[in-house]
Amino acid sequence: MSGSRELRNNGVVKNGTRSTEPPQEELATGERSTRNRVARSILDHGPSTVADLAGRLGLTQAAVRRHLDALVADDVVEAREQRVYGARTRGRPAKVFALTDCGRDAFDQSYDKLAVDALRWIERNAGGQAAVVAFARARLAAQAEVYRKAVDAAAPEERTEALAKALSVDGYAATARSAPGRANGEQLCQHHCPVAHVAEQYPQLCEAETEVFSQLLGTHVQRLATIAHGDGVCTTFIPRSEPPGPPAAQSPGTPQTTNNPSASTAGRNPA
After folding, report:
1. Alpha-carbon separation of residue 46 from 18, 80, 198, 241, 242 (angstroms)
2. Which run of H or E residues covers position 134?
3. For 94, which DSSP code?
4. Which of 30, 50, 176, 192 is deepest in the core (most CB within 10 A)?
5. Could you tell me the CA-to-CA distances from 9 to 74, 100, 105, 266 in Å, in that order?
6. pLDDT tens digits for 178-229?
7. Do 82 and 94 form a contact (C-beta atoms < 8 A)?
8. Entry's Pfam families (predicted)?
9. Residue 230 φ/ψ, nearest 5 degrees
10. Could you tell me which of 179, 7, 205 has the C-alpha nearest to residue 99?
11. pTM to 2 decimals?
12. Distance of alpha carbon 104 from alpha carbon 102, whole angstroms
């Protein structure tokens, strides 16, 4: 993994003894082992089934299961029941594999303790919770300007995707997709959060980020899940704006409608 320590590359156990030669898939990947590719794919795409991973990596499902077994044994990934949106179908939900805290740490050079200590000092000596909020907003200000350029350059229907790509450059492994079960909205999914452990203690970081997303996209957004709260992915719902329709025809002699502040939709939650 670039910029981080490599995951332990344990050999395959056969007949009670550890094989001294790695399988062919690992030999073919050079310095980035197949096991690391599996973990990285889960980081980039979120909790994944064996079939998902096999399709993305070009491996057999048997090979993926073998690497997942080793990653589970190393506490890098864990098996979960797949979250189902809408009505459940018959049968048990598919099993998905998600990164553990230990697995996420393998992708970070963690300075969490220093960051938490700094925020705690700010909270105690520089104005309490309000100072922490001010810091969180100021921290995102410079990033927001870069994101704004990407969003403003995109067509309206592609702005969420443009924001996801800009976030990915900063290490958030973000994607955009239609929101499951919601015909008129999208989900912005961040599969990695470099400050997740700090945000566990200071959720103001997540709140400031949500505010920035709303400002950049010009609409109210709703945070549905965060890695800091224990979810597998940071998920934000973004309503699609409806294109304005043609003006209604008026009958001759009908008085012109005036702007009535009480009829304005400003400030309503579009979700």
Report:
1. 31, 12, 20, 27, 29
2. helix 128-152
3. P
4. 192
5. 10, 17, 16, 55
6. 888 766 899 999 988 888 889 999 999 999 999 999 999 999 999 999 988 8
7. yes
8. HTH_24 (PF13412)
9. 105, 0
10. 7
11. 0.57
12. 5
Structural domains present in the chain: 27-82+93-99 (1.10.10.10), 143-239 (no CATH)
Q: Tell me which amino acid residue 227 is.
A: I
Give the number of other Cβ atoms within 10 Å of residue 157's Cβ. Answer: 11
First CA to last CA across the chain, in angstroms? 39
9 closest CA partner among 62, 54, 74: 74
DSSP 3-state assignment of 236? strand
Q: Which of 188, 134, 195 is nearest to 166 (CA)?
A: 188
Which residue has tokens 């056969």?
A: 14
The residue among 102, 97, 109 whose CA lies nearest residue 232 is: 97
> If we measure between CA atoms, which residue out of 41, 101, 29, 38 comes closest to residue 69?
38
Residues across the chain: 271
- Please, are residues 190 and 233 in contact by the beta-carbon 8 Å criterion? yes
AA letter at 211: E
Residue type, 78: E
Task: Let me know: does 226 contact 199? Beta carbons within 8 Å.
Answer: yes
The per-type count for the chain, helices as H runs and strands as E runs, is: 10, 8
